[in-house]
Amino acid sequence: MPLTHTRELFAKALKGKYALGAFNVNNMELLQAIIEACEEEKAPVMLQISKGARQYANPVYLKKLIEAAVSVSTIPIAVHLDHGDTFELCKECIDEGFTSVMIDASHESFEKNVEITKKVVEYAHKHNCVVESELGQLVGAQFDEGEEGGAHSMKGVYTDPEDAVKFVKESGCDSLAVAIGNSHGAYKFKGEQHLDLERLKRIKKALMDAGLGDYPLVLHGASSVPKQYVEEINKYGGNLGTDTAGVPEADIEIARRTGCTKVNIDTDLRLAMTAAIRKVLTENPKEFDPRKFIGPARSAVKELVRHKIKNVLCCAGQAF
Ligand code: G3H
Ligand code: 13P
Ligand code: ZN
């Protein structure tokens, strides 16, 4: 079974009012965990590859691993470039057969962001690929000094609804990542904070009123940083900040119902994996067979993905 086009997954998700999980892939075990959970729960899935993942694992390995995932599963799978930072990187991925790419020029001026996005859109559309772009800047670590330091700086720029309409019309992008209080990484907020869901509603409505239809929005930084993983990591020798919190899952559910069609999750997978590895190695200091600690880590990620697709994104059962 070949890849399923992102365009097709989006159309079905918009119609079915569920969100697609976009999970980051960096190695074989993460990929297996995501695919096994989605296969068992009959969920369509978007696999995301970042520039860092390509540097870490080698694009050829990733491509072959995804081909293997497609051939051992029956669910619809799309492949997406996460946070492409140049036209050249987007072009490489389009040429490799990715079904969608993200160009992230959100740190540029509005005009420059339109110009860069438009160039990627023109190339992508000629080559059967769709484009996600971002308007506004997420709070926290993405553009600040460091994970912990940047996490609480609140330097983000929220997406303005009218700007969103102008941006989509001028750039021609196929989906839009919004900044509504979301943030990347494990250090998003101090204490509980919420997404600006009213703003999300206004963005969605402005796009609809402007004749852009049920336009797909994307939520980056959607990890909820579960306390149980942070505590487990610290219990077994880690040293993560404990006064950190992610996006509440209840907010993600509302975001899904308000029109976030693609929800990006990476950090929670990393936390689940790290917690499991630390536990096994601490409890079994003589262990040196990687399968004995990477195997449980894969199982932990699989259960996390199962929880997200069933209980938060509601895409379980939507594969066929
Ligand atoms: O938002 C970024 C993703 O979590 C990917 O992170 O660039 O470290 O692979 P990465
Ligand atoms: P998290 O860091 O919250 O998992 O966000 C991931 C993401 O937005 C990938 O693009
Ligand atoms: Zn992101």
If you had to describe this structure to a student in words, what would you say it looks like?
- The protein has 320 residues and is an alpha/beta fold.
- It has a single domain (6-312), classed as TIM Barrel (Alpha-Beta Barrel), CATH 3.20.20.70.
- The protein has 13 helices and 12 strands.
- The protein has helices spanning 6-16, 28-41, 51-57, 59-72, 87-96, 110-126, 147-151, 161-171, 197-212, 227-235, 249-258, 267-283, 290-312; strands at residues 20-24, 45-50, 77-84, 100-103, 130-135, 139-140, 175-178, 183-184, 189-190, 217-219, 244-245, 260-265.
- Strand 3, helix 5 (87-96) and strand 4 (100-103) form a beta-alpha-beta unit.
- Helix 3 packs across helix 4.
- The chain is globular.
- 50% of the residues are buried.
- Residues 141-153 have low confidence and may be disordered.
- The structure holds glyceraldehyde-3-phosphate, 1,3-dihydroxyacetonephosphate (13P) and zinc ion.
